[in-house]
Design a protein that fits this description.
- The structure is a homodimer.
- Chain A has about 325 residues and is of the alpha/beta class.
- Chain A is about 45% helix and about 15% strand.
- Chain A has twelve helices and twelve strands.
- In chain A, helix 6 crosses helix 12.
Chain lengths: ~325, ~325
């Protein structure tokens, strides 16, 4: 039985969507208990006696405008900090939050701490690609990375894809502006060198950014600044094209009818692109399963993020990262 | 009368499309002469005595696999190097090439040279946005930038948008992963500081990458690595969505009919997204008008790139960058 701590007050649709998500999760998996953190008087009526959904009173909330570091240090009675602390104290096996990314990162790093040997934990969403989904690591936990952090990101991403998504031999690429080894900025060239030298995971060379969405790689490694730029550009361009498409479909009677006839494939396409609803982004490298659900998560997305946390526990991601890192450092 | 040197052998569709583009350009503008560089025996039959289209014999060609630096130094009889040298020697006012980007950058920097005071020339394509097009500078000429290069990119981009695209007060943003001044990696934070301090152009703060495609800024400044990542991600995602859309439209009889009814708005959308056909990317900061046309340019794209070179001359871009830089350095 896994216990998953859930920050009931995190995200745009909290607490309703979060509580609904918790209920969906326990209905789907009979080996989990979800422990909701938030003001008891708010949560009690919503939970309504649902089995395996527990409430832990946390009167305070971390807002989107709170300074992450300060909030984690000072708001010790907040739903997020208490949920994070539950993992540290061994009261829960994993923590899921749709609240402030910065605060969850800070909480994960400061309160739960790193796996022994990990230089920097990293945020790593799974993104839909043309052929298959890929893990983009790091997406913003660390700006100003060093090459050896990136070498480790490759390992952590590889472990995740193998243990959680069942990819047998994950192929790892380094996000870069060209295919050749000598391409890129200093960091990319150094990381290429280090990643080529190790044998703890399968390094397939540079992932040309233009080809990243095609899904040729299972894991794409980047400095947190660059990874975040890739993620945000994907979001921005997708939004732009979708809104242009919508405009075009309203431009005439004929177009409107055409749009109606294309409803099914367009809906499928939209669902496929909408990676936010597929679950959250794991924070890899911390000493526990931490999942950041998207701020706009609805109940289904929360349920998926809880499922993801459960898969990380079942797949022993933390233990495998620890073991893998030993292999990595031996080869250096 | 402007003389524009055109590398007749550069690009996937050379020399036919380039020669056709030259003819279209002189037909549209009666104040230009286009000087084509390439093997005379190849070009002569194609040009066919067209007025204001001249041929300068250049027997050699720089291929896409040539090392840019070596090619520029050694292939002095190549169409690209001879076209670039024509600007240096004052035989032409501008140079346009759809050939190797690296070689054109190297040629521009080594052979034509920088405008006095420019730290690093930068490649700056204009990209379609939701509200308006924006200039993304630098898109790959310089990896490992320093903050003061980025400060200058803002000026060069601002001058271009004002002089060539007629934007009265171009608003300049710094590509970043958050809106607040303290966001980003070290380079972004330092650049923010420097850009805030100057008054030679209008700095509007951080351009959150997610919002870049919406076109809130006229100029988006980035390190060449990050700018190239943004550009390539835009290309990759656009390609992905377009191919998913195509698949969806073929998925059933009904969908096929719907697609037929949407043909006009979809074609308009595709044209709007296809920035490559709108012209080329200027190399700003070198002592002459240098335009990199896209490798896949057809005759119309070549014509547009020539038009762009002409607009840069008419707008006195080089002179205005020189003057603007003086203002910039006085304020530091």
């Amino acid at each position: 039985m896994y216990t998953i701590a859930l920050d009931a007050m995190g995200g745009d649709n909290a607490p309703q969507a979060v509580v609904e998500g918790a209920k969906l999760a326990v209905a789907e998996f009979d080996d989990i208990t979800v422990r909701l953190y938030g003001p008891e008087e708010v949560l009690r009526p919503l939970v309504d006696g649902c089995e395996r959904v527990e409430i832990v009173h946390a009167p305070d909330v971390i807002g989107m405008h709170d300074s992450p570091m300060l909030a984690v240090r000072q708001k010790t009675e907040s739903s997020m900090v208490k949920a994070v602390m539950a993992v540290r104290e061994g009261e829960a096996d994993a923590v899921v939050s749709a609240g402030s990314t910065g605060a969850l990162l800070a909480g994960g790093m400061l309160r739960i701490g790193r796996i022994r040997g990990v230089e920097r934990p990293a945020l790593a969403p799974v993104i839909p690609g043309r052929k298959k989904p890929f893990l983009l690591i790091d997406c913003g936990a660390n700006v100003d990375c060093q090459a050896r952090y990136l070498q480790q990101f490759g390992l952590m991403g590889s472990v995740y894809m193998q243990s959680v998504l069942g990819v047998e031999r994950p192929e790892v690429g380094l996000a870069n502006i060209g295919a050749e080894a000598e391409k890129g900025d200093r960091l990319a060239r150094e990381a290429y060198e280090l990643m080529s030298r190790q044998t703890a995971y399968v390094f397939k060379g540079n992932a040309e950014v233009r080809d990243v969405p095609s899904g040729d790689f299972d894991v794409v490694v980047a400095d947190g600044f660059v990874g975040n730029v890739i993620l945000k550009t994907i979001e921005g361009v997708t939004g732009l094209i979708m809104s242009m498409l919508k405009d075009g479909m309203r431009s005439s009677r004929r177009a409107k009818m055409g749009a109606l006839m294309l409803r099914t494939p367009l809906r499928e396409m939209k669902n496929r692109m909408d990676y936010k609803s597929h679950g959250g982004a794991p924070l890899l490298g911390v000493n526990g399963a931490v999942v950041k659900a998207h701020g706009s998560s609805d109940a289904r997305a929360i349920k998926n993020a809880v499922r993801q946390a459960r898969s990380m526990l079942e797949g022993c991601v933390v233990e495998k990262i620890r073991d893998g890192l030993e292999g990595l450092s031996m080869e250096k």
